[in-house]
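>> Question from a student workshop board

For tomorrow's exercise we were told to take the sequence and the ligand below, predict the bound structure, and bring the output to class. My setup keeps failing. Could a helper post the expected result so I can at least see what it should look like? The ligand is BES.
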Amino acid sequence: MQDENRFLKINFEEPNNSLNQNTMDAVHVLFYSEKNLLLSHFFQEDNTLSSFLKKNITINTSNYVIVRSEKGTFLLVRRKLQKDKGFTDNYLEELGGNIYNSLKSIGYSNVKVYEDEADINLRIALGILLSSYNFSNYKKNKSEEKNTLNNVIFLCMEPKIIEEKYNDMVNIAKGVFTARDLVWEPPNILFPESFAHQCTQLQKIGVEVTVYDETELKKMGMEALLAVGRGSRKSSRVVVMKWLGGNSDNSIMSFIGKGVCFDSGGLSLKPPKSMEDMKWDMGGAATVTGLMETVASSKLKANIVGVIGLVENMPDGDAQRPGDVVKSVSGQTIEVLNTDAEGRLVLADLLSWTEKNIKPEFMINLATLTGAIIMALGNVRAGLFSNDKMIAKSIFNAGEKSGEKVWELPLDDEYDQLIKTEIADMKNIGGPGAGSITAACFLKRHVEKTPWAHIDIAGVTWKSKSSPTIPSGGIGWGVKMLYQLIKDRQKNLN
Ligand code: BES
Ligand code: ZN
Ligand code: ZN
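>> Workshop helper replied:
Here is what the output should look like for this input. Compare the format with yours to find the bug.
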């Protein structure tokens, strides 16, 4: 859970007339159109200054120009004109991220941004928050990593109204930061039990949290999930997080996450290079946890349930063996031919259990499920698979708006045939090709009739190079997109 002090301070104020005499105390961020027309009109009255700034933006080809002058320091930002379609949230957030990154190094702690429109300000502010993230829990000298920038003021009309809406942006940032933190944490610190403990912190903001231990999971029939955890000294957990902010007769939207706190591959051991990344094989569970924080912090009038399966996949003497047969919650049997295809075993039990016990309107699972999805889509889009056109479309649309984009892949019967086996109802690997699809077919077999979507986030959970709003490392992918989806859904109901 996030401490408010972690975020840099962003305020909204009305501009006052003495503005022009008081330009030395901060960096002033002004916007220009692509044709170099000043969009922030506050400085227009001072002719010498505005023509001086205009000259600077005109002679520069960069979209972010820093000008130091006797009249103060300015960051001139060139941005698109808002056409009838408007800006996407993602465009504005990236603008905010670029502003943050341009200013980080120049040593000013105060920044003033001149823009009137509420929606533009809100998303730029969110971009600034998201790009200011850093993870330095394990650095001796934390101050090095501290933001130099700590006070941002948006000068705009009706600041009170914007301020209220700004809470929503902070709530999104809280969830994203939590998801990023969880992804960053090393596996000796974040294992099933300690992860579950972090989830219980959400009780402070009204989330109902139930943690199931191995004895209970056995009673619940989660043999496939437990089989994965068998090879580890760390015991497995399932956490159910409920936010019931809607009416009791409103349906429940459910989100399910793969939480493999470390994936060594088990007895089908991974080679060292591929194992390096496997602390973040709990990215799906991190996103679900972050989403619950955002939803509860916003006191959303909706019923949301998050279910995460926390295990560690290790090769102990009692680890599951290639060739083992296990029974899942659905009653179907699985031949485990490769212990490294463990995520699907965890999710299979969670999907059946959620469908039977939570009876949600839909289930969306997130999982760093296959390396093959990185071959197909790289680090740009996540893979989407679904048994329902409506839910797939809602996810796609929420992705385009938020910038956390997906691409749908097929689930034809011919692919499903590839996981047939003689000894059991299915095996946990397919043929050499279409690895992400056969994994999704496996999951689909554990959903009876509920609209369901699986998002394979193996390519979008960790970033090796930073982008405007995402420093390198844990991305927190999906918190923004799923929050958007929930809100879109609510709008359609009203
Ligand atoms: N956790 C991995 C998938 C993964 C790979 C995530 C790279 C992030 C980056 C998953 O459990 C796994 O090992 N999948 C295997 C499946 C195979 C054995 C059928 C894979 O993708 O190689
Ligand atoms: Zn694996
Ligand atoms: Zn895995």
